[in-house]
Amino acid sequence: MLRERGWELSLLAVLLVFPLAVQDAYFRHLMILVLLWVTIGTGWNLLAGYTGQVSFGTAAFFGVGAYTAGLLAHHLEISAWWGLLLGGPLAVLVGFPFGWISFPLRGAYFALGSLALGEIMRLLATVWESLTEGMVGILIMQTFVSKVPYYYLALGLALASILVMELVTRSRLGYYFVSIREDQDAAASIGIDTTRYKMVSLSLHAFLTGTAGALYMNYMGFIDPQVVFSLSDISIMAILVVIVGGVGTIMGPVVGAFVMVAVQEIFRSGGFGGLKALTQAVGGGFLPVLTKYITQAHVLAFGVLVVVVIMTLPNGIVGDWSRIKRALRRG
Amino acid sequence: MTGFGKKLALILGSLLLLGAGAGAALAADSIKVGVVLPLTGSQAKFGEIEKNSFMLALEEINAAGGVNGKKIELVMEDDTGKPDVGRSAIEKLITQDQVSVVTGGYSSSVTFAMAAVAQQRKVPFVVVTGSDDKITEQKWNYVFRINPPASEYPKALGSFLTEVVKPQSVVILYENTNFGQSSSKAFVKDCEDMGLKILMKEGYEAGAVDFKPLLTKVKAANPDLIYMVSYVMDASLLMRQAKELDINPKLFVGGGAGFTLPEFVKNAGPAAEFVFSATLWTETVPFPGAREYVKKYADKFKEETEYHGAEAYAGMYVVADALKRAKAVEPDAVREALAATDLMTAFGPVKFISYDKKTQQNSLPTYLVQWQKGELETVWPKELATKPAVYPVPKWSER
């Protein structure tokens, strides 16, 4: 087992020593984001990748977790760290009525229901100003200036979510999930209570996402409805992380999170400013033009890249790993 | 190592080099100043105006000898209008580029999130636009703000209302954004102080496609004054539909933002006529360099600027002034120099003072403008007016 898990264990080793090796707060910050996305992606993967319930509502749970932490500090002056314990359960509570209403729906209809859930939560947080401060948002001061505690918390959470994934996929529960994904009617006919197990899957998803949201509040110190209930930046991003990494694979969200966060930032900052430096060093010609266009149109460039990855690697980077290896060997 | 492994290592290695090269290649004889603005996304238009204005001021400062013989170099970062990206950006500026001062800050939420980072990392941050009151109410001694807070935008409007219009009732419409919610809340307080009756206060989702249901309710309420906090497309549509529905209050007033932009009059057409708006700055303000700035901007970039640009233009001068006076180019020295700022700029006099709950906040007068024959005229305060206010405003049917 050790041999087949070789690269995963070495990745873990690298992640454990990362903050010791890299002192730069900026790169540490990016890694914290990567780890948060590992958790969120893993949660989505459990619900959509394994149980087949494609959700566009990840932001609802993320936001509930984040607001749980934020409101505790804002209204009750209780440390926002309690949100880390309460954010997950509260997200599950929101998930229950939603699941109860929408699990009789299938396929695209469930997806639409989840889309509505995310938007309802966003509007609620925007309009209910006396509770949430609306779009003014909630600001708390972070407990630590150093990023190291946040890093290890995010790493712990990411590891825990992967562990949950491992345990679930090896257990009977995992087979129930897959059977529901493959054919719900067949699953029901052999005696699996499909609504109940879909609810279990949704709760796990909500719990992981809500906890990640609470950690986000503690780390970022600022949230508003547009940030944490965002359709594009949270719900769609969660889907992209898993699709790029590999749907229905355990390591898919890990790879996807790294690729999405790192590549997005590389485009935004023009190779961490490297492109600009290169231009200054080499000077003239084609490079300055390229730099200018990439940095100005980084959102577009990033979008194109994601489209290309999805088109050439339909099973994601992990799912199509053997194909990538072959292509690189040949090249 | 397999052939594949080698290739992967090569790719990763070159990526790392690319990152490492960034720090080394920068010239040592310049002073780096960080600027964070929304250069993409929905606020990109204003980000662009501010970026151009920073560059315009930078050229002038460097051409005049820079700061104590050193040139200033701006490190621009795009916050894409999102608080978390803004946070990444300012973290990068502080730890990687090691700037000793950061400026910019467009939207309130992004500015708020960035200000917290600046305070925590003890690097001065000169806010030029982010207007949420709370930004300078945290006792953050590394955060300075040049522009007035959102609650003060309608200051000039207040005196115009009490001295000229004397309205009895008001309807407040605002977009559900940080700027909309916080400035409408502040205006409610102003109305209560003036003894105005608030008939209706309603938020809407920014970027709405139809305001008729909302405006029908407004018409039924029949207020003396309609106060709106909206960006440019919403502002235009609100006015066009108000004209269609023949809503005739004593006056329509915009709370800054969209109502003062050239695009507003282009989109709203005749419906923009006689609309008032609170504003922070116009080119006719009596500050040295204001008119020249507008002209230089138009010559260089072939388009019109507006008050956001003036804020950025002044911001660059404030930062350069502080760098000149600072004992050393390092954050604490620059912070001290900023705290002692007393500078006249094209945007107005800049001095960071404490009042009410605010600290290190610049205090400026605000203005009331009115669209007259497609031109934005300053109408209040009276001594600075370019044209007298057209009041009472004729009904739509009588124009």
What is the residue-averaged pLDDT of chain A?
88
Q: What ranges of chain B have pLDDT less than 50 throughout 5 or more consecutive residues?
A: 1-5, 12-27
Main sheet specs of chain A? 2 strands, antiparallel
**Percent helix among the residues of chain B?**
40-55%
What CATH architecture label of chain A applies? Orthogonal Bundle
Detailed description of the structure:
The complex is a heterodimer of chains A (331) and B (399). Chain A is mostly helical and 331 residues long. Chain A has a single domain, classed as ABC transporter involved in vitamin B12 uptake, BtuC. Helices cover 78% and strands 1% of the residues of chain A. Chain A has a two-stranded antiparallel ribbon. In chain A, helix 8 packs across helix 10. Chain A is globular, with a radius of gyration of 21 Å. Chain A starts with 5 loop residues before the first helix and ends with a helix. The model of chain A has no long low-confidence stretch (mean pLDDT 88). Chain B is of the alpha/beta class. Chain B folds into 2 domains: 196 residues, Rossmann fold (3-Layer(aba) Sandwich); 161 residues, Response regulator (Rossmann fold), CATH 3.40.50.2300. In chain B, 42% of the residues lie in helices and 20% in strands. Chain B is built from 12 helices and 16 strands. Chain B has a 7-stranded mixed β-sheet with strand order 7-6-8-9-10-15-16. In chain B, helix 3 packs parallel to helix 4 and helix 11 packs across helix 12. The N terminus of chain B is likely disordered. Chains A and B meet through helix 2, helix 5, strand 2, helix 13 and helix 14 of A and helix 1, helix 3, helix 4 and helix 6 of B.
